[in-house]
Input
Amino acid sequence: MSDPIADLRAAIGDPALMLETPEETGAYTTDWTKKFNGATPMVLRPRTTADVSRMLAACNELGIKVVPQGGNTGVVGGSTPRGGEVVLSLSRLNTIADYDPASATVVVGAGVVLAAVHEFVAPLEMEFPVDLGARGQCQIGGMLATNAGGNRVLRYGLMREQVRGLEVVLADGTVISNLNRLRKDNSGLDLKQLFVGSEGILGVITQAVLQVRPCPPARRTAMLAMTDRAALPALLAEVRARLPGLSSLEVLPDDVCQYVSDQVPGASMPFTERFPIYALVEEETEAGAAGHDGFVERLSGLFESGLVADAVVAESEAQSAGLWHVREATGEAIVAAGYSHKFDITVPQGEIPEFLDEMEALAATLPGIKPLLFGHLGDGNVHANFVQTPEIADKPFLAEGPALAKAVYGATRARHGSVSAEHGIGTLKRDYLGYSKSPEEISLMRRFKGLLDPNGILNPGVMLD
Ligand code: FAD
Ligand code: ZN
Output
């Protein structure tokens, strides 16, 4: 009988490009959340685009299914093997080069870690505006494949908006290379955007041309306290109008802040009094000297409008980091709690207060489950977490998952929202794609998949069943 893995080994030849023992492959089979894991007969570790092409061509020929993997920080179960697939790790495609000052673009291998891009451009006084908590581990290829967002989407957009050129290898090994640096290119269909956010089901990203930008002279941060969350949409409109350099607007209810303060050392709130809800605001301003860039004056108008009851303005980078720490420690605090059901929802910004009411009412029907609702107010992106408390055991808590998902996604659909704001669909949300996409759209997605990967070798079970 033929052994496809033996045939693949022979086709690839060089043992340095393959890992096969469980000790070697173990690190590639469990994701960051530890929720998704499986077994793999082989991890492929290409060094070049040509290696990726050869490997995919061989897998396609042999009918071997492949899971592309970047930094393995995706949270929707798309980057680890599920049914004995081969893992294709892009980590060695980690060259970052060719900074072009005229276009302010840089050519980056798919396996380059986000923090390395930040470090590469910093001495040039440039920055790559996408930033997220997984910066030390997530890779540009994985970030493009998931169209990652983060904290500054409001000003700079998601990964989709940062990419100028892309190189992709199709399932049959065909290399589609368009590493141009053009800001404007309407020569036919913008094919690269088909692969951004495609979660590895249409092709494997190997290189990208990324747009970078001059660092702003200063970034100012403030925490605003509010007495009424119904006023959040009005606050958003007001902050947007008053702060021309607005780069982040995050929302944190008091119970989330208390929870984070209790769980994570150093993540304490700067107010002596408690308020029902807080907004974290960041603006990119012209002058660096604190107090002389008009930031405080612009914020003071918010008091006059009655939207804000109190505010703390960071006067140094350390103070700013302290305010951000409360927001960024939410993930750690939730993990520390035990199990959680996580949802990454978008609803129209104006409907956020009602959506939060609905989520709290839903949680009130579930004994032992605590809702922690926060997110990127500016983008209408709510991270709705339903966390386990000591009052409920693991099994009944986990059993609530599917019913809870239906209720949360049902409420999202009713508001014409999205079941995935920035994390992707993966395997976790696959069965709920229909809550955000019509049958016609899903059918068209399947046709793209069939066209580009007729043998279905790329990331089977992700996004589409
Ligand atoms: P992986 O997890 O390895 O893969 C993700 C998906 O992309 C998988 O389906 C995989 O098959 C596919 N893939 C990977 N590489 C390629 C490639 N080269 N070609 C084709 N397909 C590929 N996400 C946000 O959007 N915003 C946030 O603010 C945010 N914060 C986070 C904070 C923490 C602490 C953590 C752990 C995660 C966070 N995430 C966030 C989620 C995650 O970091 C992003 O989704 C990230 O983009 C995934 O990159 P990765 O390299 O780890 O990809
Ligand atoms: Zn987020």
Q: What stands out?
A: The chain is about 30% helix and 20% strand. The radius of gyration is 23 Å. The mean pLDDT is 95. Residues 376, 383, 422 surround zinc ion (ligand 2) (CB under 6 Å).
